[in-house]
């Protein structure tokens, strides 16, 4: 699964991240922990960084499956 | 108040090149048909940062789908909330130099009050809710910009007011 980042949170990853997600899915919380371990950065654990799945902002309890489009974003700065 | 804004009332766009405000406002004049007032606002890149340092570039990162949706939603809400004839919202993304227009809002209405208030409302929503991530570059390097407390307070005014009805 390719994961995109928007705003300041992109920095620790240096671009989109690649990570494997099991068919049975993982929660957003687990996905954050997997990313933090793989990229050795705890920035993704910040609660102000929101997760979007298929263009909808979701809670950390939301389950993510391999076919989903997953993105993490820093708080928007507005226009 | 317009309960159901029509397609022709509202126009919003995400722009990747310079905004031609004269062309946008002319299009709004024609689309607004029969209006008695037209209010416009341009947000422009300042030549210095809030810290007083010279600014080379302002960069607005955007989301490939959610940014356009946010502009559409804000524009539609403005048209539904105020008694107006037509409005336009056009917002830049990408890198901009000082002096370039970041955002243009135009509102045509029968009377001036609704147009002023709708433009004010649109800008307060855009400043806090439009899906962008801003950074500035200059001799200081690069830094991210967050919304200010003032921006948030300006936005919250509209939670209580029923202006323009």
Number of domains of chain A: 1
Termini distance of chain B? 5 Å
Determine and state the CATH class of chain B.
Alpha Beta
Unreliable stretches covering 5 or more consecutive residues of chain B: none
Q: Largest interface, with Cβ-Cβ < 8 Å? A: A-B, 13 and 24 residues
Low-confidence spans of chain A: none
CATH topology label of chain A: Ubiquitin-like (UB roll)
As laid out across the biggest beta sheet of chain A, the strand order is 2-1-7-4-5
Gyration radius of chain B, rounded: 16 Å
Defining key terms:
heterodimer, A: 79 residues, alpha+beta, Ubiquitin-like (UB roll), five-stranded mixed beta sheet, B: 165 residues, Aldehyde Oxidoreductase, domain 3, four-stranded mixed beta sheet, 4 helices, 31% strand, globular
Explain this structure.
The complex is a heterodimer of chains A (79) and B (165). With 79 residues, chain A is an alpha+beta fold. Chain A has one domain: Ubiquitin-like (UB roll) (Roll). Chain A is built from one helix and seven strands. In chain A, the strands form two sheets. In chain A, strands 2-1-7-4-5 form a five-stranded mixed β-sheet, with no helix packed on it. A two-stranded antiparallel sheet of chain A has the order 3-6. With 165 residues, chain B is an alpha+beta fold. Helix content of chain B is 35%, strand content 31%. The mean pLDDT of chain B is 91. Chains A and B meet through loops of A and helix 3 and strand 7 of B.
């Amino acid at each position: 699964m390719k994961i995109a980042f928007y705003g300041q949170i992109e920095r620790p990853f240096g671009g989109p991240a690649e990570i494997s997600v099991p068919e049975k899915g993982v929660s957003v919380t687990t996905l954050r922990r997997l990313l933090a371990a793989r990229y050795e950065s705890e920035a993704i654990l910040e609660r102000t960084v929101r997760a979007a799945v298929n263009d909808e902002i979701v809670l950390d309890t939301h389950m993510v499956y391999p076919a989903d489009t997953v993105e993490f974003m820093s708080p928007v700065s507005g226009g | 108040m317009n309960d159901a804004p029509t397609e022709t009332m509202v126009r919003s766009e995400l722009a990747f090149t310079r905004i031609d405000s004269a062309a946008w406002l002319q299009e709004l004049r024609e689309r607004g048909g029969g209006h008695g007032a037209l209010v416009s606002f341009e947000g422009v890149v300042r030549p210095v940062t809030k810290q007083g340092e010279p600014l080379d570039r302002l960069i607005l990162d955007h989301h490939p789908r959610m940014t356009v949706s946010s502009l559409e939603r804000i524009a539609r809400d403005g048209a539904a909330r105020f008694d107006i004839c037509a409005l336009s919202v056009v917002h830049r993304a990408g890198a901009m130099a000082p002096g370039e227009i970041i955002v243009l809002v135009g509102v045509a209405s029968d009377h001036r009050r609704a147009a002023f208030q709708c433009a004010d409302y649109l800008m307060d929503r855009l400043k806090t809710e439009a899906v962008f991530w801003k950074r500035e570059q200059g001799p200081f390097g690069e830094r991210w910009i967050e919304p200010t407390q003032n921006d948030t307070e300006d936005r919250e005014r509209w939670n209580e007011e029923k202006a323009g009805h």
